[in-house]
Amino acid sequence: MSELLTRGVANLIPKDLAEKKVKTEKKMRVYWGIDPTGGRIHLGHSIPMRKLQQFADEGHHAILLIGSFTAMIGDPSDRESERNALTREEVEKNFKTYKEQAAKVIDFDKVEVVYNHEWLEKITFEEILQLASNFTVQQMSERAMFKERMNKGNPVSVHEFLYPLMVGYDSVIQDVDCELGGTDQEFNMLAGRTLQKALGKREKFVLTTPLIEGTDGRKMSKSYDNCVYLDDEPSDMFGKMMSINDNLMETYFECCTDIPMDEVKKILKGDPREAKVHLAKEIVRMYHSEKDADAAESNFTKVFSEGGVPDDMPEVKAKKGSTVIDVLVEQGLIASKSEARRLVEQGGIKKDDTAIDSIDTKVEEGIYKVGKRKFLKISL
Among 3.40.630.10, 3.10.290.10, 3.10.50.30, 3.30.479.10, what is the CATH number of 315-379? Predict the structure, then answer.
């Protein structure tokens, strides 16, 4: 039996419509949308992407929608404060790499790509008012994040109220049978269901996928810096997977891999560390290769079990007089000077196992370790 409506699925709204459409075996129009608010795709994004590909593999018309217009406004879902607006240039820079990364999950010979600026830029104010007449202020105010922010006295901008309207209009333009998205997108997707019915389009069902927690136990999010990215290096990806909580493994296996669930149950009944190694290797294999997965496991064992250093450690020649922090930031091991200051205070930057105690420390030859998983060999 197909796992189209079961595996990696949190909810179906309405369930009877979803089951009816799938049982008819007619070709459906199905889409998933993503706003390019950042330049990288993580495992959390991969869950609806994998479901979209599953629909494509079963012969349905699958659509990946890039929110090239809505990203400039920002989705208020699950936000405690207003999201900073992006410029068109920032959005364009972000989505340049999206297709390349998404190709690790999606077969673009089977999936259509569309951009919502193509219709949202052209909509008139009169049309916006007509669309808005299908909703009430009370409905919008009931959104959990809006209610919470208003209760705290934090502002909610009118353009944030309009975000579900714009995403709903995407559904109208696409005239879809199904929209996919994380559980945090349910309100937005149901807005599209309302508009499709109001404007005489086909009736769609909403399929929500689970949100997964990241390496720190919170929702996987770029804002929390707790993501496993699809373009992470194999050793870094493996190390991140080994750091997730044990109780998350079943969800990761179900939502992020294709391993049959009967086999997953058997894996999880065994030793927890071996189960996590199995999961980590599978993720690395999917986004890199079998060889990379074996090497990542070997490096992890060498670094964490034997106290050694990885074989695939990058090397760089630094200029004399440079600070350690300048080199580490330049090489991408640290994102910023502020992050570097925090790491130094926590003893998180070491040279040959000795912690650096100042952000002004001059660089010397040796092996530098940042956090638990990042290494860099420096020569002068």
Answer: 3.10.290.10
> pLDDT for 115-172, tens place per residue?
999 999 999 999 999 988 988 877 777 666 667 777 787 777 777 778 888 999 999 9
Q: Where are the domains of the chain?
A: 11-209, 232-305, 315-379
Q: Report pLDDT for 18.
A: 96
CA dihedral sign of residues 348, 310, 248, 77: positive
Q: Note the pLDDT tens digit of each residue in 74-83.
A: 555 444 444 5
Instruction: Give dist(CA 99, CA 103) in Å, integer.
Output: 6
3-state secondary structure the chain: CCCCCCCCCCEEECHHHHHHHHHHCCCCEEEEEECCCCCCCEHHHHHHHHHHHHHHHCCCEEEEEECCCHHHCCCCCCCCCCCCCCCHHHHHHHHCCHHHHHCCCCCCCCEEEEECHHHHCCCCHHHHHHHHCCCCHHHHHCCHHHHHHHHCCCCCCHHHHHHHHHHHHHHHHHCCCEEEEEHHHHHHHHHHHHHHHHCCCCCCEEEEECCCECCCCCECCHHHCCCCECCCCHHHHHHHHHCCCHHHHHHHHHHHCCCCHHHHHHHHHCCHHHHHHHHHHHHHHHHCCHHHHHHHHHHHHHHHHCCCCCCCCCEEECCCCCEHHHHHHHCCCCCCHHHHHHHHHCCCEEECCEECCCCCCECCCEEEEECCCEEEEEEC
pLDDT digits (tens, 9 = 90+) for 220-236: 988 888 999 999 999 99
Mean pLDDT value across residues 354-380: 86
Full-model pTM: 0.79
